[in-house]
């Protein structure tokens, strides 16, 4: 019985090692034709986070703690109809496999934007935005340990 539990545990661990991530989606599509890609590392976020009084204009939200807590930003923007469906499928597989919670969905004139997070009541470990508009798809993934209250304030201010 112990042997079966150990084998099952190892099997589950190996499956999760092959799971999609924002980084793997970025690496898979960043060099494709008609795809724009941006990656920002944790080192860059730490450097930006050292800027004093890094606030959103007209708000009391200080961006420095949020920015310093980020470990990676991955952006893929594609106008390549040949791979857009693959990007969408990989992004949805990543979102569904990571127990992400849908924060918001907006639809307007054929464009759909969805925002997701995964984490706890206090900390957001990952934020994902997927935007679909005709022949264009945008995938944004922000990883880190962001304070949920600060992130909620930031998103609320951005929506004004």
Question: Beta-sheet strand percentage?
Answer: 35-45%
Question: What's the end-to-end separation, in Å?
Answer: 57 Å
- Please tally the β strands and state the result: 6
Principal-axis shape equals: globular
Number of helices: 6
Return residue spans where pLDDT drops below 50 for at least 5 consecutive residues. 1-19
Q: Rg to the nearest angstrom? A: 18 Å
- Helix and strand composition category: alpha+beta
Number of domains: 1
Largest sheet: 6 strands, antiparallel
The residue fraction in helices comes out at 40-55%
Q: Output the helix-strand order.
A: HHEHHEHEEEEH
Physical arrangement of strands within the biggest beta sheet: 1-2-6-5-4-3
How much is the average pLDDT?
Answer: 80
At a glance:
By secondary structure, this protein is α+β, with helices and mostly antiparallel strands. Helices cover about 40% and strands about 35% of the residues. The protein has one domain (about 20-160).
What does this structure look like?
The protein is α+β, with helices and mostly antiparallel strands. The chain is built from six helices and six strands. The protein has helices spanning 2-17, 22-29, 42-49, 63-68, 81-97, 148-159; strands spanning 35-41, 70-78, 101-108, 111-119, 123-133, 136-147. The chain has a six-stranded antiparallel sheet with strand order 1-2-6-5-4-3. The radius of gyration is 18 Å and the shape is globular.
């Amino acid at each position: 019985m112990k042997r079966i539990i150990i084998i099952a545990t190892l099997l589950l661990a190996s499956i999760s090692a092959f799971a999609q991530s924002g980084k793997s989606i970025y690496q898979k599509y960043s060099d494709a034709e008609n795809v724009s890609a941006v990656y920002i590392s944790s080192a860059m976020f730490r450097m930006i986070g050292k800027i004093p009084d890094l606030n959103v204009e007209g708000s009391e939200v200080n961006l420095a703690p949020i920015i310093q807590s980020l470990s990676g930003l991955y952006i893929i923007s594609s106008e390549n109809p040949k791979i857009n469906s693959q990007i969408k499928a990989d992004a949805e597989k990543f979102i569904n496999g990571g127990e992400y919670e849908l924060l918001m969905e907006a639809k307007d004139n054929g464009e759909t934007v969805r925002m997701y997070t995964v984490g706890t009541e206090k900390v957001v470990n990952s934020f994902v935005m997927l935007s679909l508009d005709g022949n264009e798809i945008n995938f944004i993934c922000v990883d880190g340990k962001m304070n949920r209250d600060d992130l909620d304030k930031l998103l609320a201010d951005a929506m004004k």
